[in-house]
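Hi team, as promised in this morning's meeting, here are the two structures we talked about. I've kept the exact order from the run log so nobody has to guess. The first one is mostly here for context; it's the second one we should focus on when we meet again. Sequence first, then the predicted structure tokens.
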Amino acid sequence: MNTLTSSPGAGSTLAGTALPTRAPLLSRPGWAAFILALLAVCALAPVLNLLVPEGSPLHLSDYMVGLLGKIMCYAICALAMDLIWGYTGILSLGHGLFFALGGYVMGMYLMRQAAGPDALPPFMVFLDWKALPWQWALSGSFIATLILIVLVPGLVAFVFGYFAFRSRIKGVYFSIITQALTVAAMLLFFRNETGFGGNNGFTGFTTILGYPLATQGMRMLLFVLSGLALLGFYLLARWLVRSKYGRVLQAVRDAESRVMFSGYSPLPYKLSIWVISAVMCGVAGALYVPQVGIINPGEMSPGNSIEIAIWTAVGGRATLIGPIVGAFLVNGAKSWLTVAAPEFWLYFLGALFIAVTLWLPNGIVGLVRQLMRKDKSS
């Protein structure tokens, strides 16, 4: 009869066979890098921006604070894409929708703040509306806004994902219908009668919780919150993919039929990670809007969703850190090229994606890891 025994440091054993011990969330170098990133976001950047004089070469300009804060929001979207594409094998070309939904929820609250407690937003006054539409009912409450930032993208993702995964739609067909969903939502939000500002969207934000947005301190606070959200979601993603849940997700990616034959139903796994990924994008959109000062249906364009996939591919799928690196590299290049040579930016982006697909299938991080393994073996 088999007995379960244990030995120090080796985990449990069953009939003399050692069972693997659970790996730590991060290695020692990983925790060191994480703490350095945390200090950079919460201490170094505020000091360089708020305390170092503008004439100093060490000063972090307000422009760079805004740019880095925006890129960190993009990096959250890339991390969310890695969870569903890199670890579950589901390529979405519609995650820009969830990003925009979170942004619109925050934008509605900011519009109410700018208009005043009993006033209509300016675009409603222009359209001669007499009262707020039903979807604006909770927009005056910051607590309700925080809940809706999570609930709205999550609910849309759940409804769409349930019917899509239940119908076993996968591969390129799933990618196409996610893009179709995004285009349909964009066309809906372009209409003035829907109550979302039409093609102009929302802008003219002035305060949040009564505090002015256009101050150096508020910009830095939003930067820090974006950094903390990115680091927090990174830890969450690490915990997910290293758990039994994450191993099932990777099994679904590699051989979904075998997962079914093993007694697991892929539906709850695919649906849950799809909803988690959508919520992450919604939170990123909510942090993005007060930093850039505008949200419009253009954020739902198919091109924006495709860019999220490009950041993930360039950095390296199924690495978690790779999509973050890709988001920073691609958007940093975009920020420079759109000023230096704006007519070449789209050509550069297309060429980059083709090059990565042909010669760097594992992305930049995958290439670095491969080179490190070669050095160790030699």
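And here is the second protein, the one for discussion:
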Amino acid sequence: MSSAVGADPAVVGPYLASVLGDQRWREVTVDLIAAGMSNLTYVVTPAGGSADDAVILRRPPTGAVLATAHDMAREHRVISALGPTDVPVPRTLHLCTDTEVLGAPFYVMERVVGLHVVDALPDGYADEPAQRQLIGDGLVDVLADLHSVDPEAVGLGDFGRPEGFLARQVRRWTKQWDATRDVDRPHMDALAARLAETVPATQRSGVVHGDYRLDNCLLDPERPGGIRAVLDWEMSTLGDPLTDIGMLFVYWPEEGETRPVLSPVTTLPGFPTRREIAERYAQRSGLDLADLNWYVGYAFFKFAAIVAGIVARSAAGAMAGKDTSGYADRIDPCVELGRAALEDGAL
């Protein structure tokens, strides 16, 4: 048995054997996946089994957290609800709300085989610019499909409070920043205040992912442009769909740009520009993107607040050995990009 902080295999194995009704799970190996800085994700493999037999277990970080940001029942619920739709998500297998088992709620889902692209495309995959264009288009189309889901029809009618969503989100992340601020950052405070003063009217509400980006998706290893699964639904709720586009832009540097805080993958020739993404999304969704600058400014503010939270949890020893060195240095550049979007119209 391997050792994994937060998911003791001596506990996980017998528990899965019981709830899944399969004794092959009685002995397991548990491996923490390195990617991700918030909820913890593990690969659980039965003794003698292969990668094809493995399942995925998700639980909150092992330290003190914002309860609403690490709600396993909500994450399990939205993935289960989206299962029958056009949005590609893993199949959920079990939700455990008994904190006596692992010290926190957790859920188990199928392991989807796909490419997880973080810092670089794998050698030999999407080598041609046209294939990279397909990846960008595929990500936009899946997001538009998500935003076309009728929450009531899939049992998510009470999954959030769409009324006043944007103003409430600005307050929420301002509160997060106030609770985790590492040093005095007056430009962060100014951005928060400006966002609160200029909240646009929401055109349409729907299911939002909350952190939609390339490395929160698994790509089809055989067909560039195919999306096997959208992951990391911990921030999902009902709200303004354009917040997802704003957040996608945070993670989407273009060819020739040198943003040190982001992955460089989308700078490769062929990936669509942010404006091309906006145009495709507008066409697919029918939404007006005239206020997109506000959403991009808000997304950079939210991202900066998230990073501040990671820095705080790391300082408290709650990141299970993850390397967070240099994270504090990302906050101010994000604040400036948010200000530039909001005040200068720089998408």
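Starting points for discussion:
Strands lie at 28-32, 40-46, 55-59, 92-96, 106-110, 206-208, 217-219, 227-230, 237-239.
Residues 15 and 26 are 8 Å apart (CA to CA).
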